[in-house]
Every structure is written in C-alpha cells, then in structure tokens.
Task: structure prediction
Amino acid sequence: MTPETFFRSLSDSTRLRCLMLLQWQGELCVCELTQALNLSQPKISRHLAALRAAGVVLDRRAGQWVHYRIHPELPPWARQVLERTAAGVADEGVYAQDAAHLRLMKEEAACAARKPQT
Result:
C-alpha cells in the first residue's frame, strides 16, 4: 500500500467515518454501519468496497451478513494514523454522534435479547 492510496481512502467523509467506527469497535457488519451513520446500505457498501480494494479493510461473510475490520497487515505508519485520528476525533461532532448511535443500537439489541418471550 502506498501513502497516496491510503490517504486517498481517508479523503472521503463516509469512508473516514466508517474507519473511525471500525477502529473503535474492531469489527462491524454493514447493517451496524448503516444504522450508526444513518446512510443507505448501498452507499455504505460502495465505500467499504473501495476501502477493501485499497487494502485498508478486510471483510468476512457470516450467512447473509458481511462484517468488516481494519486490515491487520496495514503498515505500522498507516495503523498509527488511524489510531491517532480515532483518538483525536472521538469527541468531535459527527464522529461522536456515530459512536453514540452505534452504542444506542447495541444497547437496544441487548435489551431486546434479554426480554422474556410472551
């Protein structure tokens, strides 16, 4: 991966928002990213495909779900850029909102899973 390819991947706000959530969470499915960013599934999938093609993320299928994570073999300099960026924007505007949406979604899912069946 070249620095140009990597930084071009970060230059789109949707891709950067996805990467920040992946950096914080480790692995997320497309449906979680769609909900957190409040964007359409085709738009999220298109941006994730670009990140995958650039070698920034990896995907894995689990039935009908596709899960993404940051590529574990990113060069150390690229991983450091993601780590520092995620730490720097964690409390900033849309990035904090995305993380809050994801947390809320996961809490609601956990509560629904614990509710007794009637």
Observations:
- The two ends are 53 Å apart (CA to CA).
- Strands lie at 27-29, 57-62, 65-70.
